[in-house]
Amino acid sequence: MLLFGAVVGLPLDIKHDGTARGFTQILLTYTLGTITALLGFATLWLACGKVARDVEECQLQLVAVKPVARWKIWLG
Fold first, then answer.
1. Which of 9, 16, 26, 57 is deepest in the core (most CB within 10 A)?
2. Statement: residue 5 has pLDDT above 70
3. Residues 6 or more apart from 16 whose CB is under 8 A from it?
């Protein structure tokens, strides 16, 4: 429900200049911005889960034993 409110409700609640162009610009700006942010967070969430699963299933052992800092593994 929060997603629906952010994608649909927010652009409709913000006041525009009364023209179709202004309404369309506000609708596209906030809708695309919200969707981009949500997709970014979803990608991060899934990537962290994948790395955690690789560690749990011992698939990351070969990488973890090499002299590489942990932040470089996460960044990679």
1. 26
2. no
3. 22, 23, 25, 26
